[in-house]
Amino acid sequence: MLDFVRIACAVPAVKVGDVKKNAADICGFIEKADLQKVDILLFPELALTGYSCGDLFFQDALHHAVKDGLRQICRCSGEHPDMAVVVGLPVSVGGKLLNCAALIARGEVAGIVPKVHIPGNEKRWFSSGAELENLWLEPGQIGLTASEDYWGIPVCAKQLFRLAGDTVVGIEICEDLMTPMAVSSSLSVAGAEVILNLAASNEVAGKHRFRRDLVKYQSASSSCVYAFCSAGYTESTADLVYSGHSMIGENGSILAESENGILSDYMLVQDCDLGRVRADRRRRQYFGVAGDGKEYKINEPYGDALRSDGSLYPLRKLPFVPSNKAERDARCLEIFNIQVAGLKQRLNTIRANAVLGISGGLDSTLALLVAVEAMRQLGRPLTDVYGVTMPCFGTSDRTYNNSWELMKKLGISSKEISIKNAVTLHFADIGHDINVHNGTYENSQARERTQILMDYASVVGGIVVGTGDLSELALGWCTYNGDHMSMYGVNGSIPKTLIRWMIEAIAQLPDFVAAKDVLMDILDTPISPELLPPDAQGKIAQKTEDLVGPYALHDFFLYYALRYGFTPTKIYTLACRAFEGDFDGETIKKWLKNFYRRFFTQQFKRNCQPDGVKVGSVGLGPRGDWQMPSDAAARIWLDEAEEL
To answer: Options 3.40.50.620, 3.40.50.880, 3.30.470.20, 3.40.1180.10; which CATH number does 325-642 get?
Structure first.
């Protein structure tokens, strides 16, 4: 089950007062939406009559026409039974006129939701539905014929609708969002995952952005899908112009939005991921049922599966990396500042220098840039940063030269300590053949480097600043008690796919201009631990991604597995779409299984990792981010991945 819902906002070219024409247009949109396998179709406020009818709302002829139009829409809905339709219309109840939304499914009105907050210009015609709780209309009161098991229609603001796939929907109308206590906030706490807003929002300068910000905020604070559909420019323009502004948001992001301008006669269609909503709500723990839930009616119009396959959902290959350059640079520098603040506080608190192993690779480069900036902000000499390059059997000329060039350009204290002799002696001590290039051969080098850094830190009064990143921690691609260990890790929550963009952004800062050329060359260097000898031309022979898989795939898996807890099936489906043309399904399946296998077996390394600053929503720190027993079984994840 992929948990996608397809929502459409339809804005007809309404003719004010011409209910017959408006009902026909609404039915036309129902037919179009059904062809696109829409699950929920939303229309604007009072779409059946037009919002700007004025005193025509007091005319019996208009209300008779509304009943005829509603019958027509219900008949059309019955011909398209896999979709819920939400239409705005006036409803007369107990001597009051209410501005309402009717949810129609399978040819019947499942419920009518009245507007709660009535703005001053509407009070001439409409009353608030806030006090209505136990009101039921007989279908005949609004011109409908009851089926045998269809005896009444609830009219209440405090009601929810459980649609296909256990999708819980709440409805509010225009102004209900634009108040200090938005109706949708209460609906969300009561369990609504999807909020539908039928609006007639007039257009004035600056209001387009105001509405957009409201929807973004409400979808974020309520952890919900939020669809906003506003009446278009064919409403009366005697005093106001109406925007026709529609948008569909999810968890603080706008997934789809009508084009800028004053619009009518269009339909906006978008897939939304209920899996993201549900994952966030499990973590936040204050959604579910308000009070004991008795004040909210739960209607269940139909219960088959949702039709959306998620093919309209926007997917990025690199979910940790913003696709827009300006946004990406801003995000990278924001993260850099968080890293610097964390290390600066640690160094200042214990009055220590910073010691780093410099390999000429991406991770140690970013950590070094953080250490230099932290020392600069502390007002201390940059020579209080100690960089140590430790060449051995696998060190290439390129990384060796880049290490020295980088330390020189940054003006830090630098030192070279070759570990070849020490590791060779160590092999003799433990009885390992130096010609056997196995795990012992590689891990011994990593542990020797860490031993040197720890001991050298004692010599210079420093702490070892760790360089390992989030992707390596997820895969356990680090040597236990080797590069896995430090006294403070600055990269521990930054994925590999983001690090190269961070270095590129930092290289543009004035304080790092002198090192820009070498930083650019480091960005072009293949990712490698350099624990095996280089090739005959002195180039890197051991490339990490050949061994553990492409980091682009692993970071994609990591994001959806940890951020949202998605199943292997859903992650695989999303990856196949995102990486279409880059990797075939078998390749993605191979590395997905490898990801789960390594993620579970390497938890013991994460359970004892050092302190490190958190910078994003996905982290593996054992104290506050990811808690998991080291001997947890991966069987159900691997079995599901195997069946793909």
So the answer is: 3.40.50.620
Q: Which of 9, 45, 224, 570 is catalytic?
A: 45
State yes or no: is 272 an active-site residue: no
Q: Is the pLDDT of residue 534 over 70?
A: no
CA proximity to 446, closest of 359, 535, 371, 333: 359
Of 100, 108, 115, 272, which one is the catalytic site residue? 115
pTM for the structure as a whole: 0.90
Structure-token pair, residue 145 = 């014929």
Q: What is the pLDDT averaged over residues 178-202?
A: 93
**Domain assignments of the chain as residue spans, ordered by start:** 4-299, 325-642
CATH of 4-299, one of 3.60.110.10, 3.60.15.10, 3.40.640.10, 3.40.1440.60: 3.60.110.10
Cβ partners under 8 Å of residue 495, min gap 6: 320, 469, 470, 471, 551, 555, 558, 559, 618
Tell me what the mean pLDDT of segment 327-339 comes to: 96
Residues 6, 40: Cα–Cα separation, whole Å: 7
Task: Dump pLDDT digits (tens) for 439-451.
Answer: 999 899 999 999 9
Is residue 174 annotated as part of the catalytic site, yes or no? yes
Q: Which of 53, 100, 174, 272 is catalytic?
A: 174
- 485-512 residue pLDDT tens: 999 999 999 999 999 999 999 999 999 9
Active-site annotation holds for 45: yes
pLDDT of residue 527: 64
Common-topology check for domains 4-299 and 325-642? no
